[in-house]
Amino acid sequence: MTVNVRKIVVGVEEVRHDGGPKLDRPILKGFVACVLKNPFAGRYEADVTGMMEALKPLGLECSTKLLAALGGDPKAIEAYGKGSLVGAGGELEHGALWHVPGGYAMRELLGQALSIVPSMTKMGAMGAILDVPIHHKDAAYVRSHFDGITISVADAPRADEILFALAMTTGGRPHARMGGLTQDAIAKWDGLR
Questions:
Q1: β-strands 119-123, 130-136: how paired?
Q2: Domain count, the chain
């Protein structure tokens, strides 16, 4: 199966505060969006799983680009997420092809990354907005890291394309104070708590 990439877009936010006091260290929150031809657009295909294997190198390439944009240090990354936006000629199941290639590539690069990678998959036209959920990479219940990032690429996805996205951050919300499990209190190392 051929993976035909049209473009890769990388974006990084440097958050210095969120209305409260200036942070000692800005939080970097970034995404990589990869736009590619959907080989199944316009028709129903019973078995699409072969595409997951074909996408694995792209997952690693995108993860590597995003990590580099956030400074290159895997130990600095605290949270992550992924998503896909399928053009009108495809179906939701085509977006789900990103679960393994995107999620496992980030985990591989980050080393210890125990928690499930939160995900969003939806259909959309060119310029549609994809809100990618983010949570802590080692414990999904770390409340300070419940967040997200909004991604939009003006000319994507075309009807016969898919936009696959990954997100990573170097911290939680800037002024988190809603209680719950904190990063320094992760104890079970089970991906949840």
A1: unpaired
A2: 1
